[in-house]
Structures are given as C-alpha cells and as structure tokens.
Amino acid sequence: MQKFKHLQQRTEAGETIVSQNIIAKKIGESDRQIIVGAHYDTVKGVQGVDDNGSGVGVILEAIESFQHKKMPYTLTFVFFGAEEIGTKGSEYYTSQMTPKEIQNTVAMVNLDSLIAGDKMYVYGDEGEDGWVRDQALDLAKKKKLNVETNPGLNPEYPKGSTGDWSDHAAFKKLGIPFAYFEATNWALCDQDGYVQTEKHGAIWHNPEKDSLNFIRSQFPGRMEERLHTFSILLIELLTHIKEPKK
Ligand SMILES: [Zn+2]
Questions:
Q1: Does residue 11 have a pLDDT over 70?
Q2: pLDDT for the residue 245
Q3: Tell me: the pLDDT tens digits for 214-245?
Q4: In angstroms, how far is CA 245 from the centroid of its own chain?
Q5: Predicted confidence band at 1 (pLDDT cuts at 50, 70, 90)?
Q6: Residue 186: CA atoms inside 13 Å, Cβ hemisphere, count?
Q7: Which residues cross the membrane (predicted)?
C-alpha cells in the first residue's frame, strides 16, 4: 500500500514549497508495527549520495529481501521529505499519529548518511532505554559486522546516544524507542559526530564531496562495504527484533 501526504512549508522568503512523505506497509505476523525511515531529500544543489541516497538504498534492499518472507512485525517504511529544512517530513508524520498508533509502535529505525563516514554506528536512547540499539549491536557482533556505537567522548552526547538532528527525533519525542544507523567519526574535531572523515572532513551538504565520483575515487570500496554492512544489519534487526518484557 502506498499513500502520499502533503506538507506545506512557508520559507523565510515567503515562498511555499510542497513536499511528500512516501509510505509503504508490509503486514507481519503481529499487527504491532516497526517504522523504518530515511529522508529522500537533499540540500539544494547537492547530489546527496551519502545524505541520504544511501539510507533510501538500504531500505529498498531490505524491502526486496523481505518480499516473500513473513516478518514478525508489521513494517511501515517511510521515505521522508523536507528533512534538510528542519525534519519537517518526520514531524508531520508523527503529528498525524493517533495515540493508538503510537502505542502500537514497537520501534523506529532511522537511516541517514551511511556510506562516507570513517566508522559505522548505531545509536539509540540512553542506557537501558536504548534496547533497539543494543539488539542491533548484538546482531552486528553475531554477524561479525564492523558496527559500533557513539563512544560518548563528548558529555553532551552520552555513550550510545546522538543528537536530535535527524528523523528519529520526532519519534523519540513521542517516547517511541529508536535505532539510528549512520557512518561518521565521533573522535574528530568537536567530537559531535559532525566531521565524518579524517581525510576530507564533512562530506554531507558539500556539492563537491557528497557525490558518487568523489566518494568512489577518494574512498575506494567504502561505499560498497557500508551498503553491504548496513543492509545486513537492517535485515537482521527487522527479522530478530524482540520487544523487551515490561
Ligand atoms: Zn540527512
């Protein structure tokens, strides 16, 4: 099933821009749902291969692999519009969720900027509340995937967590547990995860760097490794995720 939601955002210049969220559902054994999301917009004038063609690509790969499988939970895939102008797509989506739907949501998995950063991470809520992240980390270990979490070098972003700058934030605000996949490097500069690579600094939002040719030529093999690893991790997580007993 697909449906389109329209959002209207008035920019500072008074210009009205229309954007859409694209939603697809796969009914699972349980009618409780997991929302899997990635924004499909980019910063104006940027190819956006990393931010966020990569997230969209990994979700499409997972969808294809589930095609003939019965999944434990109902999966709601959402491609968000208008993330780059202030996470408008995900905020609109959560504003339309009924209390029943919120209660019926097991978790949200956000994928944003997966292929350029030096290291692969999964984040979640702090401590035990971050059970989706912890399950993803366990699965990564089992599958020998090179995925870790934010080491918490910066006290503003404690171990395992991250900032509210992507589409997971709107769901977190509703108390929905989340996991968020990203490639960056938390050891660099202000240790805020913004500078993704030692070699070329931040890639996202840069018209030269966030392009297929640049990433391919400057980081040979990285794109393929990241896409492969995150696809396996997403498929494993959605296949094995278990709600903790309350
Ligand atoms: Zn992004």
A1: no
A2: 84
A3: 999 999 999 999 999 999 999 999 999 999 98
A4: 25
A5: very low
A6: 21
A7: none
135 within some domain: yes
Instruction: Please report the pLDDT score of residue 86 as a whole number.
Output: 86
Burial label for 92, CB within 10 Å (0-12, 13-18, 19+), is buried
Q: What is the number of domains present in the chain?
A: 1
Give me ligand 1 centre to Cα 176, in Å: 20
Cβ atoms of 119 and 185 within 8 Å: the answer is yes
For residue 166, the CA-to-ligand 1 centroid distance in Å is 7
CATH of residue 88's domain is: 3.40.630.10
For residue 51, how far is its CA from the centre of ligand 1 (angstroms)? 5
Residue 194 belongs to a domain: yes
Report yes or no on 193 lying in a domain: yes
Give distance in angstroms: CA of 39 to centre of ligand 1. Answer: 7
User: Within a domain: residue 27?
Assistant: yes
pLDDT at residue 12, rounded to an integer: 59
Can you give the pLDDT at residue 85?
A: 83
**How remote is the CA of residue 157 from the centroid of ligand 1, in Å?**
18
Dist CA 220 CA 170 (whole Å): 35
State in Å: Cα 78 to ligand 1 middle: 14
